[in-house]
């Protein structure tokens, strides 16, 4: 399965996908990396792995439709079959979400549907939850919603700060995103309405 990865910054989840895809038995390859920021560190990570990486600064486009059409054209030219959002910080329009429906996934740093949006780690601490985590889900128009493919939970410790908690969640993200992509690439995930159904139990 050919992946297109959309980033805006650091790209550590992109790195985890590239690392996984480097294994000969992994059922997906990263065909293209796109960033809406020219200085995203993830672009360099992709280029040093020999993966095509393009900056499409959203500010260079007249409006959101023009920006999203440019991204779609680049993804389709590269033969991308599954778009993976990995720290991509632009809201996507219903047009883009519909165009890529059930071929567009995101990783979010919380156990959705808890804590959609930003600052999830501080909000989890403020809420006093004992577990936090991350979710890979198919993208729907409403922010951080859509059929859930996979989740990983991490414990919240009493002395956690947003930084220590986010580091623990990030380590889980780096395991979870390649796992979710593998499940999809192996055809083990089907979307049925608002839910993603797994064809067989997780390993
Ligand atoms: C991750 O926490 C991801 O869950 C969220 O944005 C962050 C991106 O980090 N959507 P990175 O760029 O992958 O390092």
UniProtKB/TrEMBL annotation:
Sequence positions that bind (6R)-10-formyltetrahydrofolate: 64, 89-92, 106
MF (Gene Ontology): phosphoribosylglycinamide formyltransferase activity
Origin: domain of life: Bacteria
Formyl transferase N-terminal domain location: 2-181
Active site (record annotation): 108
Record carries keyword Transferase: yes
Site (Raises pKa of active site His): 144
Gene3D superfamilies: Formyl transferase, N-terminal domain
Pathway info: Purine metabolism; IMP biosynthesis via de novo pathway; N(2)-formyl-N(1)-(5-phospho-D-ribosyl)glycinamide from N(1)-(5-phospho-D-ribosyl)glycinamide (10-formyl THF route): step 1/1
Top EC category: transferase
Matching InterPro entries: Formyl_transf_N, Formyl_transf_N_sf, GART
Binding-site list for N(1)-(5-phospho-beta-D-ribosyl)glycinamide: 11-13
Recorded GO CC terms: cytosol
GO biological process, one term: 'de novo' IMP biosynthetic process
Purpose: Catalyzes the transfer of a formyl group from 10-formyltetrahydrofolate to 5-phospho-ribosyl-glycinamide (GAR), producing 5-phospho-ribosyl-N-formylglycinamide (FGAR) and tetrahydrofolate.
Family: Belongs to the GART family.
NCBIfam families reported for this sequence: PurN
PANTHER family attached to this UniProt entry: PHOSPHORIBOSYLGLYCINAMIDE FORMYLTRANSFERASE
Protein name: Phosphoribosylglycinamide formyltransferase
Organism in which the protein naturally occurs: Nitrospirillum viridazoti CBAmc
Gene this chain is encoded by: purN
């Amino acid at each position: 399965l050919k992946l297109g990865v959309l980033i805006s910054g650091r790209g550590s989840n992109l790195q985890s996908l590239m690392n996984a895809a480097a294994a000969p038995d992994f059922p997906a390859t990263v065909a293209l990396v796109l960033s809406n920021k020219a200085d995203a560190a993830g672009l360099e990570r992709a280029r040093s792995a020999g993966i095509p990486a393009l900056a499409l600064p959203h500010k260079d486009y007249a409006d959101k439709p023009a920006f999203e059409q440019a991204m779609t054209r680049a993804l389709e030219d590269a033969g991308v079959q599954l778009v993976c959002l990995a720290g991509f910080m632009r809201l996507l329009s219903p047009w883009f979400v519909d165009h890529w429906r059930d071929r567009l996934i995101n990783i979010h740093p919380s156990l959705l549907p808890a804590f959609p949006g930003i600052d999830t780690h501080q909000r989890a601490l403020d809420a006093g939850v004992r577990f936090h985590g991350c979710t890979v889900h198919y993208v729907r128009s409403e922010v951080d919603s859509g059929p859930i493919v996979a989740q990983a939970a991490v414990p919240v410790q009493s002395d956690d700060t947003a930084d220590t908690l986010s580091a623990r969640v990030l380590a889980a993200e780096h395991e979870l995103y390649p796992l979710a992509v593998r499940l999809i690439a192996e055809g083990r995930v089907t979307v049925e309405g608002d839910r993603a159904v797994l064809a067989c139990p997780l390993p």
